[in-house]
Design goal:
Helices cover 14% and strands 40% of the residues. 16% of the residues are buried. With 167 residues, the chain is mainly beta. Strands 1-2-3-4-5-6-7-8 form an 8-stranded antiparallel barrel. The N terminus is likely disordered.
Length: 167
Amino acid sequence: MRSIRTPALTAFLLLAGTAAQAGTDPSGTWLTEDGRAKIKVERCGPGGAHACGTVVWLKTPLNDHGQPRTDIKNPDPKKRSRPVIGLQLMDGLKPEDAGYKGQIYNAEEGKFYEVTIARESASELSVSGCLLKVLCGSQTWTKAPDEVAQAAPRPAAKPAPAKTVSP
């Protein structure tokens, strides 16, 4: 009787551990608290142990000149022409406690922050970050439908001249 229970108990504990890991998995598409961007968080790294996040949608994908938004505040001049859509903001966040910890890039400021992301519920992701361990803040991102990434917008086309028809 003992030998039957041991494998069953082991299998149960393994499944329970997998379910707990799935509950903290930050994967999905998340709408930022201000509603201006959607970030797709996926498992990455060796064995999918880390978390990475990429911009897949912007509420305002074009700048004032009708061009796709770029990473203009990046401290590296060579990176300032990178489109924001498709930009990886989080790379290789490592699992820690009930979340993931690492760095997040803020393209609006061109700065990196220490960040912890943690799944609060099926529809909420807590994002907490600090600059120099002094300036800290947090946001709650909400689950967005996993949709096809927003295509990089094309510059606005000039309207075709109106055709005149002779009577």
